[in-house]
Amino acid sequence: MVYKVIFFLLFCISNVFAQENKQVVNLKQLYKNSLKNNHNITILNNNLLVDKMLNFQIDEDKSKCLIGFYCQSNYNSFIVLEQFAKKNYDEDKTKQNKIILKELQEQKEHKLNDAMLFQISLLYFEVLKLKKDEALLNERISLVKESLELFNKRKKIGLKEEDDLKSWKTELENTKSDLKRVIALKKKRKEQLSYLSNINLDDKILQDYHMQSSEFTILNETVAFYLNNNEKIKNMTSKISNYITSNDIDIKALSFLIETKRNSLEQTKKYKEELQERSKENIKQGQNLSTEHKPWDSKKFDKIVEEKLPLYINAKVTKKEVQDKALLQNLTYTLSNKKIKIRKNVNEVLKKVVSSYKTINNTLISSNTTRKNFIVIKKLYDKAKIDMKTMLDSQNSMLISKKNENNSQYDYLENIMMLFYNTNKIRAVFDKEEKRVLETEIF
């Protein structure tokens, strides 16, 4: 037994040194490198496609609270808006029309890259969760092996617990199977991150983060600090929503197109009035001319053209007016919905931040409680005062509570990233200017 303890200690020490020798990579590095790679990014059928090599299914629970392209409907709406702006420019090649179209095209690329950065965040935190899961599964294997050793001791003193032996062996095999699955999934996620960032992560460690990490705080305070009552949540919802609507390219383009269509309709109205006057004048000058049944000379033909042409043009202008009115109504409706959606989504994400922050404390209490209970239960099982099922239930409760505690930290950080993403400031993780805007203009 002494040899086993010494071997275990040596293994732990060597593992620590091995971990220290591995290079640590953080989220900032992955963000920066991925942007350098100029990936070809597409949003299609609720999937984020990168270079036609990686295909990530969009998390619908998260996407429904987001404003950017990590949401199929948002991407589709932007494409339609871009088409409107292009058509508007084709019809009237003014400098302002050109500027709006160019801004939309530039923001399209920026928004696609931000969607990729958000996906990197999700992958990153998933790897950290899986790493913690791996540790817990290894702990479970150790606990099961201890129980098997205890079974052998009991067998020597004449206790017969063959059913327990079978259950512990099944538990051990199941846990080993779960461990293999977790290790394989962690490897796959790291490979995906490696491709996106062009950094080989196989022999590297991802830096861990917590809610106090500077990348996820505002002026050295947790985001939850600014949301610790309903009134603050309401105020922050308004403040953030107003900032987004004042700076969002979709809002800017929609407002511009609406103003353009209004001006166009006003000009059309004046033009129609002019046409009607011209038509009346021409008809007055050439009364009954078009009803004469005799060969026309060139002068008479010109008069008929003068009489009828304004009527034809007027019909054509009227058709365009109807189309423009329908488009104006559609654009106005879209703008109104966009503003409502921004406010709704901001509020939803803020509530998620608060909820996940509270969950951290709740899961910590639960984890500590179940671990203490397990220690008591294990002692009773060692003395053969309780059965194996009670012992196994207690062990599972302890490990599940610890898993929930681990996940709650990363769930909170994911919600912070959702908030940064909605404000178009997801790059604040590495960009000091974007972080400054978050801290001084938004919060």
Radius of gyration: 34 Å
What percentage of amino acids are in beta strands?
under 5%
Mean pLDDT: 85
Secondary structure: number of strands: 7
Global morphology: elongated
Give the helix/strand class.
mainly alpha
Order of helices and strands: HEHEEEHHHHEEEHHHHH
Please, how many helices?
Answer: 11
- End-to-end Cα distance, whole Å, is 58 Å
Strand order in the largest sheet: 2-3-4
Q: Uncertain segments of ≥5 residues (pLDDT<50)?
A: 1-19
Percent of residues in helices comes to over 70%
Please describe the biggest sheet, giving its number of strands, its sense, and whether it closes into a barrel: 3 strands, antiparallel
Overview of the structural elements:
- This protein is mainly α.
- It is 76% helix and 5% strand.
- It is built from 11 helices and 7 strands.
- It has a 3-stranded antiparallel sheet, covered by helices on one side.
- A hairpin with a 2-residue loop joins strand 2 and strand 3.
- The longest helix has 85 residues, at 298-382.
Task: Quickly list its features.
three-stranded antiparallel beta sheet; 76% helix; elongated; two-stranded parallel sheet
Topology:
Layout: H1 2-21, E1 23-25, H2 27-36, E2 41-44, E3 47-50, E4 54-57, H3 60-63, H4 72-91, H5 95-156, H6 162-197, E5 204-206, E6 217-218, E7 221-222, H7 230-247, H8 249-285, H9 298-382, H10 388-422, H11 432-442
Helix pairs in contact: 2-5, 2-6, 4-5, 4-8, 5-6, 5-8, 5-10, 7-9, 8-9, 9-10
Summarize it.
The protein is mainly α and 443 residues long.
